[in-house]
Design a protein that fits this description.
There is one protein chain. By secondary structure, this protein is an alpha/beta fold. It folds into 2 domains: about 60 residues, no CATH class; about 100 residues, 2-Layer Sandwich (Nucleotidyltransferase, domain 5), CATH 3.30.420. About 40% of the residues lie in helices and about 20% in strands. It has a 5-stranded mixed sheet with strand order 3-2-1-4-5. Strand 2 and strand 3 form a beta hairpin. Helix 3 packs across helix 4 and helix 7 runs parallel beside helix 8. The longest helix is centred in the first third of the chain and has 16 residues.
């Protein structure tokens, strides 16, 4: 039976060096994806929590990690430390704190059978977020800027309009919500809020 060759002095030196490096810089175990997701969730939903507070919350649910690990994961997900996170407001928080003053608007279509075939009608509705009340503001075959602006004038009229001073109106980035639509809202002291691209009503 053959024998394994003995390592040369250089090989012995390399082995010793590698063992020493492994001792000084051991590889850290990979964080469980579920735990990482939980850390991200805690940081996003509790913007006043620092790393230590997140560590304590994780311990309450059976996880033991260091504040450095929490910090590294937060940085990897572009989450700022607590003092910076407190300066921002999520959409959920904004809607929760302003829902009594919030309306949302959107267009939808219906197909109607006429004597000359199917016709597409556009219907503009407004939702009162706090009480989830829906207002059908109008319908048309052509949603041009003039029609959209007239709907806003009707909706903000003192006598019977449902949009009043100090309220906020959320709408998406559809070009039908044109500049005159928004300026008419502002003239009635209603603040238009255009949704970011990744947020849906």
């Amino acid at each position: 039976m053959g024998c394994l060759p003995s390592p040369t002095p250089t090989q012995r030196l390399n082995l010793t060096h590698n063992d020493h490096q492994a001792f000084l810089h051991p590889k850290r175990p990979r964080i469980d994806p579920a735990l990482e997701q939980l850390i991200v969730q805690f940081a996003k939903e509790n913007r006043t929590w620092g790393y230590d507070r997140i560590v304590r919350a994780l311990k309450n649910v059976g996880y033991t990690v260091s504040d450095q690990t929490v910090g590294n994961i937060s940085k990897r997900h572009n989450l700022s430390p607590a003092p910076e996170r407190k300066k921002t407001t999520t959409w959920r928080e904004f809607i929760r704190s302003h829902r009594d003053l919030l309306f949302a608007t959107d267009l939808f279509t219906v197909e109607v059978w006429a004597t000359w075939g199917f016709v597409t009608y556009y219907i503009l509705l407004f939702i009162q977020v706090g009480i989830r009340k829906v207002h059908i503001a109008g319908l048309t075959l052509n949603t041009n800027g003039a029609w959209m602006t007239q709907i806003v004038r009707n909706s903000t009229m003192t006598e019977w309009g449902f949009l009043t001073s100090g309220q906020h109106l959320i709408h998406d980035r559809d070009t039908k919500f044109c500049s005159t639509f928004q300026e008419t809202l502002k003239a009635a002291d209603v603040t238009p809020i255009t949704l970011p691209q990744l947020v849906r009503i």
